User: Fold this.
Amino acid sequence: MNEKHEADCTITGLTADNRSYIDGFQKAGEHVVIIDDDYEETIKDLLKGVVND
Assistant:
């Protein structure tokens, strides 16, 4: 188990971990949407089925 401790968390490390998780899900054929700006608008679009990779 890869347990994180607060002292071990860095932006660089978290970014790398997130990239690894995203890559794994995409390789497994899952649809992944990255929300960098407007959460509410992205969710509305997802619910309407208009958000693409």
